[in-house]
């Protein structure tokens, strides 16, 4: 590594650290969960506000910025080649705050060198880091071969319509990385299968069933209201019983986490389903439906539904039930599966339908195929070599179950800044969970990696 350049980067990061944290806090303060479309805000006023704030921060650093018809935006650093450009892409929308926070999720806290707040890891902290990577290049007067755009998405957590709009109306970058996953470099993502398991109109004992805040997050709490006598019910682990009206509110208490990484989570909906079945709190139609979704909740590897499989590049399939609610007298359970290349959406659909039988209907199916880019391509090698150079590791690219913007571009990967091997502190939490946290020193290290990686990418013939 060029020692003079290394020292300049370290000095830049030290000088800008406090402002970086202030800028992240300013974005975290905006509740940017997707909302109802509004004038000039296709994904809701919160995501639009976060997009505006990010472009404001970028303009304050001296970048040319563009709001792409309120769907997405970017800050750009000019380069010599007018036909080709490099890009980074982050998102400033977030999943709902959910439950279990020990403080306001939209007021960033700092504790023991960790940031805590909704979006500090996913993906507002990384968004700010990419802006400061460009700021360093600008302040140093680096002569760029390719322009660099820091793309600002605001619909990643739900439908990614923002990037679909961008690629329909703007030329794609020759290479793009998204800081929205784990280091070192992710060069493949599992396929995605989602849908709903819907009950018939049962008119039974279950008067209300609610749980979960997002389809792609394991819920840590759920509850069902049933018409029964509380004195007839027994206690069960992670279940509480509360009298309510003419019945009992049955609450399940689990452990939340991301749908792509469900190992170690406890799905609260599954706890309530098991309790309802164990205590016969259902009529015949409800029982058949509960048995169907019990198969979903019995294993995050899909064994209950008969869809389990694994392959070399991607490992095992995963599946979770994210939200449950009642609508027009029917119970609706969402499901989110991440699948490897040994299966496909059509096969999963057939297997699930066979497993649930007539107890539930599978509806609203959505499928995204897996994607994979060979690890020895020049841009991926530039990213992994930079990561190893800065950290001293000897890491190799990996694949994952998470879905990022990378799958939408012709040539793209996800590139940090998370470190899966780092234990989460007791006061912190994971992406999509309560007390979402991110270590400050690792984000600053990522900023250094991004600066050096962009310099290395500028040298490649695309």
Automatic annotation (TrEMBL):
GO terms for biological process: L-arginine biosynthetic process; proteolysis. The keyword Phosphoprotein does not apply. Gene3D superfamilies: 3.30.70.360, Zn peptidases (3.40.630.10). Keywords: Dipeptidase, Hydrolase, Metal-binding, Metalloprotease, Protease, Zinc. Its cofactor is Zn(2+). The keyword Metal-binding applies. GO terms for molecular function: acetylornithine deacetylase activity; dipeptidase activity; metallopeptidase activity; zinc ion binding. It holds the Pfam family Peptidase_M20. NCBIfam families: dipeptidaselike. Belongs to the peptidase M20A family. This is Dipeptidase. It comes from Faecalibacterium prausnitzii.
């Amino acid at each position: 590594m060029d020692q003079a350049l290394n020292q300049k980067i370290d000095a830049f990061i030290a000088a800008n650290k406090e402002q970086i944290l202030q800028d992240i806090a300013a974005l975290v303060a905006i509740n940017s969960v997707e909302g109802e479309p509004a004038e000039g805000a296709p994904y809701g006023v919160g995501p639009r506000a976060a997009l505006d704030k990010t472009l404001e921060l970028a303009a304050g650093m001296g970048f040319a910025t563009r709001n792409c018809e309120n769907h997405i935006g970017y800050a750009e650093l000019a380069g010599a080649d007018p036909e080709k450009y490099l890009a980074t892409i982050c998102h400033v929308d977030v999943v709902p705050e959910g439950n279990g926070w020990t403080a306001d999720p939209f007021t960033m806290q700092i504790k023991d060198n960790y940031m805590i707040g909704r979006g500090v890891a996913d993906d507002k902290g990384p968004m700010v880091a990419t802006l400061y990577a460009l700021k360093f290049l600008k302040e140093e007067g680096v002569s760029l071969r390719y322009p660099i755009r820091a793309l600002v998405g605001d619909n990643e957590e739900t439908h990614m319509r923002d990037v679909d709009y961008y690629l329909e109306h703007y030329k794609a970058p020759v290479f793009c990385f998204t800081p929205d996953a784990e280091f070192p470099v992710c060069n493949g993502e599992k396929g995605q299968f989602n849908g709903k398991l819907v009950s018939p109109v049962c008119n039974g004992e279950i008067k209300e069933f609610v749980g979960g805040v997002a389809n792609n997050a394991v819920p840590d709490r759920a509850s069902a209201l049933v018409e029964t006598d509380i004195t007839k019910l027994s206690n069960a682990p992670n279940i509480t019983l509360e009298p309510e009206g003419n019945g009992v509110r049955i609450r399940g208490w689990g452990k939340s986490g991301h749908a792509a990484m469900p190992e170690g989570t406890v799905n609260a909906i599954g706890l309530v389903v098991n309790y309802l079945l164990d205590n016969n709190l259902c009529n015949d139609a409800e029982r058949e439906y509960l048995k169907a979704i019990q198969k979903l909740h019995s294993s995050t590897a899909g064994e209950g539904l008969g869809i389990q499989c694994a392959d070399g590049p991607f490992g095992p399939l995963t599946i979770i039930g994210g939200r449950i609610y009642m609508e027009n007298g029917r119970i609706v359970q969402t499901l989110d599966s991440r699948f490897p290349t040994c299966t496909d959406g059509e096969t999963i659909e057939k297997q699930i339908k066979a497993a649930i039988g007539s107890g539930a209907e599978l509806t609203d199916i959505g499928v995204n195929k897996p994607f994979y880019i060979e690890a020895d391509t020049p841009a991926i090698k530039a990213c992994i070599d930079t990561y190893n150079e800065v950290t001293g590791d000897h890491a190799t690219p990996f694949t994952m179950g998470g879905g990022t913007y990378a799958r939408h571009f012709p040539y793209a990967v996800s590139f940090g800044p998370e470190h899966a091997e780092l234990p989460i502190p007791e006061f912190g939490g994971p992406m999509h969970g309560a007390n979402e946290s991110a270590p400050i020193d690792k984000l600053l290290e990522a900023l250094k990696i991004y600066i050096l990686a962009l310099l290395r990418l500028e040298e490649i013939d695309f």
